[in-house]
Amino acid sequence: MRVSVPDTSHHDEKGKGYPMKVELEADKCVASGQCVVAAMEVFDQDDDGIAILLTEEVGDDRLGDVEEAVAVCPAAAIRLVRP
Amino acid sequence: MADTLAGAAHDAADTAPEFPMPRASGCPFDPPPGLKELQEQGPLTKVRLWDGSEPWLVTRYAEQRALLGDARVSADTDRPGYPTKASAEAGEGKLSFIMMDDPEHARLRRMVTAPFAVKKVEALRPTVQRIVDGLIDDMLAGPRPVDLVEAFALPIPSLVICELLGVPYDDHAMFQENTKTMVRTTATPEERGAATREIAGYLAGQLAERLTGPKDDLLSGIAGRVAAGELTHGQATEMALLLLIAGHETTANMIALGTAALLEHPDQLALLRDTDDPKLVASAVEELLRYLHITHLGRRRAVTEDIEIAGRVIKAGEGVIMVNEIGNRDPRVFEDPDRLDLTRDARRHVAFGFGVHQCLGQPLARMELQVVHGTLYRRIPTLRPACDLADVRFKHDAFIYGIHELPVAW
């Protein structure tokens, strides 16, 4: 029996098919490139090295990579939210 | 301590432990045992520095990241409470944006982020591969034993950063001599000042040349900002100096330390020697970045507003030191943290720091280290140390930790 944290209970059901949404606050970005290393199919950098999103929707196949990007972003500029 | 007066000795018993602390003899790759003890006791504690000041030492990973990512924590060395590293550092000029806060820090940093973008750095990989292969060719053709630091670890980042900035490599010997002086904690303020002025003068000349005849290099980009009125000549020179120094001594020491550590762990070295899998090489480099550490004096900041953390209050005007070396060995984050395991997922290490000041050149450093460790042991499979580890001199006395010489043979 799984105990769910109340405000994220529906997040626990990974693999239910509906994608998560990635949010990026580009004005916080410090161009470390960490997100590109973690999830090259989701993030890229513009001409100044500032992160850009290649896609806003992330399915289960890339969820782990994007979670890694969220964790390693030094500027806390990336969030994963349920659309 | 032994020759302090009785009264002072009594006071000392109640005061904070001294920082930095010595490493255990025979364990040059591990953090000082004293840091481990402090980490076990709690996430932060007061320590005493060379000048008698008592900043907070932050030893655990979570608290280090929280503070390095907090806008109430300042990198401005002029702030009250900023913990200076040595007497020679106090009162020196600022090294461009790494010693500034936002928004000016962000404005200046963003001027030079472009060439360090992951894909731009990836485009340099063949150049770095050529440099690394050329140096290995030279070693194989030369006498044995050879000092790996001089023959391999130092020239790689020198060649790469000179290429990136657009500085003629013929001038690299001048850089190496002067940067050595600049990172030696025992250098006098006069010696360090003279070394800094010599490099700065040279770079100012290079920038002036680019103002009249721009080329396709990073110095020309910086000179362009001067022409556009966005930077003064002085700011431009400081920025060029920062990029040169930051890309030089750091990577060289990581190459030398990494090779030495792998030679001490032959089973791990064998993994790299026997693979051509770029994923394993990349994973190995992250683990070496976690396991080893060059910024052994910690990342230092001054607190500008009271901060509540881990049940304590760090007051405005107090200093904080985040020793990422011990954060990367935090058992709360990394299982069996003192084991070098090239196959583990070490990507969340804080070797490059955290927060807005996190290393700008990290994609370049990663790529250089990947080429080095993906090439050296495959091309020289019998590489071995040519002396006992006990006889290798480590840079306990430098701002940046590393190895003075590493004699190797094959």
Structure in words:
Chain B: Residues 1-16 have a biased composition (Low complexity). Chain B: This is Cytochrome. Chain B: Belongs to the cytochrome P450 family. The complex is a heterodimer of chains A (83) and B (410). In chain A, 35% of the residues are buried. In chain A, strands 4-1-5 form a three-stranded antiparallel beta sheet. Chain A is 22% helix and 20% strand. Chain A has one domain (18-81): Alpha-Beta Plaits, CATH 3.30.70.20. Chain A is globular. By secondary structure, chain A is an alpha+beta fold. With 410 residues, chain B is α+β, with helices and mostly antiparallel strands. Chain B has helices spanning 6-14, 33-41, 61-68, 104-109, 118-123, 125-141, 148-153, 155-165, 172-183, 189-212, 218-227, 233-246, 249-264, 266-273, 278-291, 324-327, 362-379; strands at 44-46, 56-58, 73-74, 146-147, 299-303, 307-309, 312-314, 319-322, 384-385, 407-409. Chain B has a five-stranded mixed beta sheet, covered by helices on one side. In chain B, strands 4-10-9 form a three-stranded antiparallel beta sheet. Chain B has a two-stranded antiparallel sheet with strand order 6-7. The radius of gyration of chain B is 21 Å and the shape is globular. Chain A binds chain B through residues 30-34, 36-38, 40, 44-45, 47-50, 68, 71-72, 74-76, and chain B through 68-69, 106, 109-110, 113-114, 116-119, 121, 347-348, 352-360, 362-363, 366.
Write down the Rg of chain A.
14 Å
Trace the largest sheet of chain B across and list its strands.
1-2-8-5-3
- What is the number of strand segments of chain A? 5
- Report the CATH architecture of chain A: 2-Layer Sandwich
Distance between the termini of chain B: 46 Å
The largest sheet of chain B, given as strand count, sense and whether it forms a barrel, is: 5 strands, mixed
Helix content of chain A: 10-25%
**CATH secondary-structure class of chain A:** Alpha Beta
Annotation, overall tally of beta strands of chain B: 10
The average pLDDT of chain B is 91
Distance between the termini of chain A: 27 Å
The profile of the biggest β sheet of chain A is: 3 strands, antiparallel
Radius of gyration of chain B: 21 Å
CATH superfamily of the domain at 24-33 and 91-293 and 337-409 in chain B, by name, is Cytochrome P450
Number of helices of chain A: 2
Specify the overall morphology of chain A. Answer: globular
**CATH fold call of chain A:** Alpha-Beta Plaits
**Order of SSEs of chain A, N→C?**
EHEEEHE
* Strands in their spatial order, largest beta sheet of chain A: 4-1-5
Unreliably modeled segments of chain A: 1-13
Strand content of chain A: 15-25%
